[in-house]
């Protein structure tokens, strides 16, 4: 055992084997469904990601309400994964469920804006602070479209991202930084890539202003696409002063600052940028923005909007490469309207932060009591248990402390005790429907896990 992995590999493996047996014994119905699904779905699931969980067979869901999920075998779970943020405001929030049920009887998709669109536009400007908007179906789509606009408007070829970034299924961003040379390399896991994205994407460490200025200095970078805090490679918050300085550098070198707040929407009403006084040129969100109904959006400043309109007008008629047929469909617009009115509110965030406070305090106290060299990192209603002595500054810090076996053990142990965590790292998200009882269930299960590991 090392200081930050104070458990032997043998002990972990034995516990994991026992937990796998327990899962199989307690989920006969999920096992049957997995067997039937294997006959007609590649990998046994409608999307192969659905096997990226530590349980030995897929967990099939019967229903989900608020912060709870019930599986096909009737077991209840306190859900801290929340559809990995899509259900951040709780599963089936009542105002959204009502709005889509009503809309469902009046058309689902028309390739025309519904009457609600005008009001939604006003509410978007009010909630997120940017004057002009476009919609998309997923955050991946929104980011792809924003990159097209950024390159079209600036006439610059390069994109800049942070090492460890994730912005969806966007080829340009599926790159890594070679730690030896600092150059960009294709992410080795990406399938079927033929274009040389590393030629057009620069990657720098997060929280590094020197590297940022160096990357921007030749005036070739159209946009810096970034999450305000890395949330997809372990939770890596910005250091104090980083963003105001980074924003100033982008302005100085004529690079558009695109903040992807798909996850950091959990930081406060209107997202992290708004809560921290940042002024991006483009602001992107998806997932939870319409309460979990597929919908994404990007807002732009008035200045950028004028430049976008000018390049569109100057382009020949035909396909722009931006947009999809079902974008801003009637159902999504109804959901977005309800979400803007009833979910993106100070009351939602107060409730989310209250339970996140309790969870943070409970976890921190347990680490301290056992003198464990681990950290709880917090960002609004999102927090993460990290198996390292302090909050990471960048992706390399996270890589250095990666402990996949310990993570998988925590996930499966908690799952077997009715607590669902995001299957990637130790991320926990609190919704307005998450209660102190849900937090207690997680903390009790965490106590039992530590005891099972002899910690
Ligand atoms: N941006 C960020 C910051 C994300 O975390 C994700 C998904 N994890 C995406 C974009 C892509 O979202 P989607 O898969 O819904 O397209």
TrEMBL record:
<keyword id="KW-0808">Transferase</keyword>
<keyword id="KW-0032">Aminotransferase</keyword>
<comment type="similarity">
    <text>Belongs to the class-III pyridoxal-phosphate-dependent aminotransferase family.</text>
</comment>
<dbReference type="GO" id="GO:0008483">
    <property type="term" value="F:transaminase activity"/>
</dbReference>
<dbReference type="InterPro" id="IPR015424">
    <property type="entry name" value="PyrdxlP-dep_Trfase"/>
</dbReference>
<dbReference type="GO" id="GO:0030170">
    <property type="term" value="F:pyridoxal phosphate binding"/>
</dbReference>
<dbReference type="InterPro" id="IPR015422">
    <property type="entry name" value="PyrdxlP-dep_Trfase_small"/>
</dbReference>
<keyword id="KW-0663">Pyridoxal phosphate</keyword>
<protein>
    <submittedName>
        <fullName>Aminotransferase</fullName>
    </submittedName>
</protein>
<dbReference type="Pfam" id="PF00202">
    <property type="entry name" value="Aminotran_3"/>
</dbReference>
<dbReference type="InterPro" id="IPR005814">
    <property type="entry name" value="Aminotrans_3"/>
</dbReference>
<dbReference type="InterPro" id="IPR015421">
    <property type="entry name" value="PyrdxlP-dep_Trfase_major"/>
</dbReference>
């Amino acid at each position: 055992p090392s200081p930050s992995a104070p458990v032997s590999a043998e002990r972990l493996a034995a516990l994991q084997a026992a937990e796998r047996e327990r899962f199989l014994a307690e989920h006969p119905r999920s096992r049957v469904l997995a067997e039937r699904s294997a006959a007609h779905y590649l990998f046994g699931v409608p999307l192969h990601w659905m096997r990226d969980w530590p349980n030995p067979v897929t967990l099939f869901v019967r229903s989900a309400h608020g912060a709870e999920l019930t599986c096909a075998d009737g077991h209840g779970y306190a859900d801290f994964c929340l559809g990995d943020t899509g259900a951040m405001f709780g599963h089936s929030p009542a105002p959204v469920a009502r709005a889509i049920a009503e809309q469902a009887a009046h058309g689902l998709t028309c390739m025309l804006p519904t009457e609600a669109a005008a009001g939604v536009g006003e509410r978007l400007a009010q909630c997120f602070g940017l004057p002009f908007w476009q919609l998309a179906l997923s955050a991946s789509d929104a980011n792809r479209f924003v990159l097209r606009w950024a390159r079209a408007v600036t006439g610059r070829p390069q994109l800049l991202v942070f090492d460890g970034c994730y912005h969806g299924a966007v080829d340009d961003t599926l790159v890594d930084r070679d730690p030896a040379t600092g150059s960009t390399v294709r992410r080795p896991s990406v399938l079927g890539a033929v274009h040389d994205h590393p030629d057009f994407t620069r990657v720098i460490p997060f929280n590094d202003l020197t590297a940022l200025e160096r990357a921007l200095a030749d005036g070739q970078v159209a946009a810096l696409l970034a999450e305000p805090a890395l949330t997809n490679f372990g939770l890596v918050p910005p250091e104090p002063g980083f963003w105001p300085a980074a924003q100033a550098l982008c302005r100085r070198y004529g690079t558009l600052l695109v903040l992807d707040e798909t996850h950091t929407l959990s930081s406060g009403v209107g997202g992290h940028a708004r809560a921290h006084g940042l002024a991006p040129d483009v602001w992107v969100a998806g997932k939870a923005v319409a309460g979990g109904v597929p919908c994404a959006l990007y807002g732009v400043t008035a200045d950028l909007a004028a430049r976008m309109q000018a390049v569109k007008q100057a382009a020949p008629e035909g396909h722009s490469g931006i947009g999809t047929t079902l974008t801003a469909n009637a159902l999504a617009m109804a959901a977005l309207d309800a979400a803007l009115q009833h979910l993106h509110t100070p009351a939602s965030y107060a409730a989310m932060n209250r339970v996140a406070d309790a969870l943070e305090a409970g976890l921190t106290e347990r680490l301290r009591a056992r003198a464990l060299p681990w950290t709880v990192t917090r960002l609004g209603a999102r927090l993460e248990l990290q198996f390292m002595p302090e909050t990471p500054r960048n992706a390399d810090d996270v890589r250095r402390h990666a402990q996949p076996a310990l993570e998988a053990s925590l996930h499966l142990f908690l799952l077997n005790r009715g607590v669902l965590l995001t299957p990637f790292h130790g991320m926990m998200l609190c919704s307005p429907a998450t209660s102190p009882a849900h937090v207690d269930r997680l903390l009790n299960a965490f106590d039992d896990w530590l005891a099972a590991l002899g910690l």
